[in-house]
Amino acid sequence: MTQPADPVAAAVARAFREERAIVLATLIRQAGDFQLAEDAVQDAFEAAVGVWRRDGVPANPGAWITTAARRRAIDRLRRNRSLVDRAERVADLMRLDAQHEEPTMDDESTIVDDRLRLIFTCCHPALEMPARVALTLRALGGLATGEIARAFLVAEPTMGKRIVRAKRKIADAHIPYRVPDDEELPDRLRGVLRVVYLIFNEGYAATEGDRLVREELCDEAIRLSELLILLMPDDAEVWGLSALMLLHDARRAARVDASGRYVALPDQDRSRWDRDRMREGFSRLERAVRLRRPGEYQLQAAITALQMEAPDTDWAQIAELYGALAQLNPSPVVELNRAVAVGLASGPRAGLELLEPLLGDATLESYQPLHAAHAELLSRAGDAEGAARAYERAIALSANTVERVELERRLSVL
Questions:
Q1: What is the pTM of this model?
Q2: Among the four residues 42, 242, 336, 368, which has the most C-beta atoms within 10 Å?
Q3: Which residues pair with 400 in a beta bridge?
């Protein structure tokens, strides 16, 4: 007979998943110390297992965890007898002791503000991008260091040091724990959205390893976008990014076949696409458009929607949208995608003409997608010899096994 699941362990796990980021955000505000708050929250969840088993699961687990974490933060400060930071320790103790009221977790505005502060702190531009990504997954996602390290294929000690350095930089540089002022907000929000999209992209098309998709990262990025929608429901780009990720992720099951081999979009079995995610993605894109503040993520979502709406994709319209995207966010990657779309709309020679300047860009010399796209357009143009050289270059630059096997297959059938 199957043993029933431990209800207390399930309640603690649920509280960790649903309440941890809220509790951590609140305690950072109260304690003024990122590392102290995180350690105290971890202590509180460890204590919850024993106390809840003895006394029962509280009616408001989030409030219980918040109170327990604050008390453990005070205990940690009192045990820290270092003379060097004595004045700071006293100030922290006084601030925490002043938070003696039992939190109800019902003040929605305070909860929203605290979580926004945490998001903007984790994604602060003073931190290196890998540190922003890791700290966001650790603090807001609740992922363990080992989980983040495995997702990004780095050693756990390396990832641990990256997270520790990020927290130390926040403390040493006195990075403010606040929501940016109105004049700063657009640029800072773009940085936050970029972090979330980087997490999703690493999950959607893993740069290394033997899996094309790292589902755990896709799921976490989508969950973070849900949080941003909850906190910033009037921002069009927040809705646009959420739509973009949902539409991409709806195709997850069809992107590899039963043997784990790559399946290109035109060859995918559309019956395996997640219709619920598609509907939600289209709905969120419409919501973004209604806000009448166009942005790069909305344009990317519109491009993805066009690719999914019919088997006969309107590549001319997609090329136009990439042109609009290039005006909003000029980048070689956008130009590469525009060249491919033009090649599919107007013939491979037209695409190759746009690709030519990119091939001469030294910064893109080792960019695998450029050489893969070059090979595909050359193949379509009938230049088998040139396509073979481009495929060989792309294969040499491929660190992902699934992508490399597909490129090798295309090379073999030239």
A1: 0.83
A2: 242
A3: 209
